[in-house]
From TrEMBL:
This is Haem-binding uptake Tiki superfamily ChaN domain-containing protein. It comes from the Bacteria. Residues 363-372 have a biased composition (Basic and acidic residues). Residues 377-387 have a biased composition (Polar residues). The lineage of its organism: Bacteria, Pseudomonadati, Pseudomonadota, Alphaproteobacteria, Hyphomicrobiales. It holds the Pfam family Cofac_haem_bdg. The chain crosses the membrane at residues 81-99. It comes from Notoacmeibacter marinus. Residues 126-327 form the Haem-binding uptake Tiki superfamily ChaN domain. Residues 363-387 are annotated as: Disordered. Gene3D superfamilies: 3.40.50.11550. Keywords: Membrane, Transmembrane, Transmembrane helix. InterPro entries: Cofac_haem-bd_dom.
Length: 387
């Protein structure tokens, strides 16, 4: 009798210990999900995998002890163990998790290299970027892999305790209220593209850019619409810098002259991007507009707050020789060029701090569309002149 009573007491003690420790695990899991939902460490995949492993080992050990001491039957313990672990691990899986925090060299099938063309790990890239106030990430606009990479860099900076503003080339100040509503959670994900009038503004499919917006909302990072309004761009192209007030010229940093190789590269880029349909001596207004757009983005970055900014823009805008970096405080920028190429772009090694290189994608002849638009514009002009 005494031995049986001692055995029952031991079983009761084990039961109480198991239930107490199981509840501690459950409460800890809820705390990690709810009490500190904005701590980047708790959302990283490696942290949650480690925590899940600890919980798995702990509960497995508890059940083995209970079975060994006859507290529950094996069949019942296996069922309870399975259900308990499923609940706890599911709680971790459904919590907000960064897509990946493992060291990697590529994104979307690409590779990362430094300015010398040497391989660079993703984590090393993030360390370099996080040390600078202003991070500029270029893109080829219709390249989905480039936008996924931009989102990954933003998430990586947050994991390094940075909270930069996300400055966008694509949207003018008129879209700022919608960006604020998005970050505040007042716009549904499926309605965001329409709310921003994304397709009407002529940008590639919004779904390619969605990861950037999702990352900003998840971490409550401000987003800034840094494009110029179309009416102002047209006025500059038609009437030159005198089309805007002196104060506005200063805001657009048009008082910062662009000369020498940087000017030559920008002018040649504009001519080439228009498939030779614009002569170099006629590219002046387009150069001025590009400078003004760069100035608007630089100004937005410098006004973004104490934790700096990340610029999302075409790769041409993030070049050091004629783009936004030349307008920002010296020594505080990190520029990443994204290219679709199998070879290191050695000619551009001096104008970027790092490169993300993805495989070329055949999208047909871009000049064909430009020629067609130019032809329609010419026909329309002739038609209106004959009336």
């Amino acid at each position: 009798m005494r031995g049986e009573a001692a055995f029952e007491a031991k079983k009761a003690k084990l039961r109480r210990r198991y239930y107490v420790q199981r509840n501690i695990c459950a409460v800890s899991t809820v705390a990690l999900q709810q009490i500190w939902p904005r701590q980047p460490l708790f959302r990283t995949a490696s942290f949650q995998r480690s925590l899940a492993g600890v919980l798995l080992r702990f509960i497995s050990s508890m059940f083995r002890r209970m079975v060994r001491n006859g507290v529950v039957s094996m069949k019942r313990s296996v069922f309870r163990s399975f259900m308990g672990l499923l609940g706890l691990v599911s709680g971790l899986v459904i919590s907000p998790v960064v897509a990946s925090d493992v060291v990697k060299n590529d994104s979307g099938g690409g590779r990362i290299v430094d300015a010398a063309g040497d391989p660079l790990t993703f984590e090393a890239l993030l360390d370099m970027a996080a040390s600078k106030t202003f991070v500029l990430i270029g893109e080829i606009h219709p390249a989905a892999a480039h936008h996924a990479f931009q989102a990954e860099v933003i998430e990586g900076l947050v994991r390094r305790n940075r909270r930069p503003a996300i400055v966008l080339e694509m949207l003018p100040p008129a879209a700022q209220p919608e960006l604020d509503r998005w970050i505040a959670g007042d716009i549904a994900a499926q309605a965001l593209g329409e709310a921003l009038e994304w397709s009407e503004r002529g940008w590639p499919h919004f779904e390619m850019y969605r990861p950037i917006f999702e990352a900003a909302r998840q971490y409550e990072l401000p987003m800034v619409a840094a494009a110029m309004e179309r009416s102002e761009i047209m006025a500059l192209g038609r009437d030159g810098a005198e089309a805007v007030e002196p104060m506005r010229r200063g805001q657009l940093m048009l008082d910062r002259p662009l000369e020498g190789p940087g000017f030559d590269v920008l002018r040649r880029t504009i001519v080439d991007s228009h498939c030779g349909m614009v002569e170099e001596n006629a590219a002046g207004p387009m150069v001025l507009i590009q400078r003004a757009r760069d100035g608007a983005m630089a100004q937005a970055m410098m006004e973004s707050g104490p934790d700096g900014a990340v610029l999302i823009a075409g790769t041409g805008h993030v070049r050091r020789d004629h783009g936004v970096p030349r307008l920002l405080p010296s020594g505080r920028t990190f520029a990443i060029g994204q290219f679709e190429t199998g070879a290191f772009p050695a000619d551009d090694s001096a104008v970027f701090d790092a490169f993300h290189l993805t495989e070329p994608v055949d999208r047909g002849d871009p000049c064909e569309g430009i020629r067609e638009r130019m032809k329609r514009s010419s026909n329309a002009a002739e038609g209106s002149g004959s009336k």
